[in-house]
Design goal:
The structure is a homodimer of 113-residue chains.
Chain A: H1 6-20, H2 23-35, E1 38-39, H3 40-45, H4 51-63, E2 67-72, E3 75-80, H5 82-112
Antiparallel strand pairs in A: 1-3, 2-3
The structure holds a DNA duplex (30 and 30 nucleotides).
DNA sequence: GCAACTGACAACCATTTGGTTGCACGTGGA
DNA sequence: TCCACGTGCAACCAAATGGTTGTCAGTTGC
């Protein structure tokens, strides 16, 4: 089976969560999700940090695969990469479902005694 | 409507993502999800850092509301708090859905021209 | 062509973070 | 009762992080 070792996928998931785990970055993603593809300058206008700080955050998210960029003339346009969001979602679902199963087992053991 | 200002909820979501955004912590959550409620010592036996480091991570996750602990004799037993996982999930879903809408709008604009 | 705009890169700084060791305290079993 | 075990707290440290300012290079428009 291809999902034999969930650990490996989850290990890869940590950077995605980390990328979402900063308030400024989360705000950038929110803005991107509402406004669609946007340039660094546009994004900078919507948060209260410098252009350079925004660029750093975008790079972090790009490395996590959360966003991608294309050049349009002199400005780079950023957009969300939904596949990594789905990956994070799957990860959470896996944890939740396994947790439910674990509690069921626990309950069964208690009843058995 | 009660969901008027998603920004506020999303601001609160950042710590949850941050709590999941560390490999050791993610591993702890994975273990908890598979094994059910576990003591600090049991958790320590399943990662390769010291007990104190594990305790720190658990505290971080507790403050994010991801896990909770109860005392059972001399050891504290930890378990997952599913509500915060759901919160994170809702957050991701919101981003995804808004992103889809944004792309639809963009597509409509392009077609209109 | 030149000034204004946009972005990349580098240096630097303060704070946070992930980890360690050491110590003290409470609990439980022999 | 006493010793081993499990936990919490504090001090400490190196590395990463989030932010800044400054400088340089490529685009755009007047």
């Amino acid at each position: 089976m291809s999902t034999k070792r969930p650990e490996l996928r989850l290990k890869a998931s940590a950077p995605i969560f980390a990328a979402l785990g900063d308030e400024t970055r989360l705000r950038l993603v929110i803005f991107l999700s509402a406004a669609g593809p946007s340039s660094t300058a546009t994004l900078t206008a919507n948060v209260d940090v410098t252009r350079q700080a925004v660029a750093k955050h975008l790079r972090v998210m790009k490395e996590a695969g959360l966003v991608s960029s294309v050049y349009q003339g002199r400005d780079s346009v950023w957009q969300i990469e939904p596949s990594q969001l789905e990956e994070a979602q799957r990860c959470i679902e896996l944890i939740s479902s396994r947790w439910d199963q674990a509690l069921d087992r626990l309950r069964a053991m208690v009843e058995q005694e």
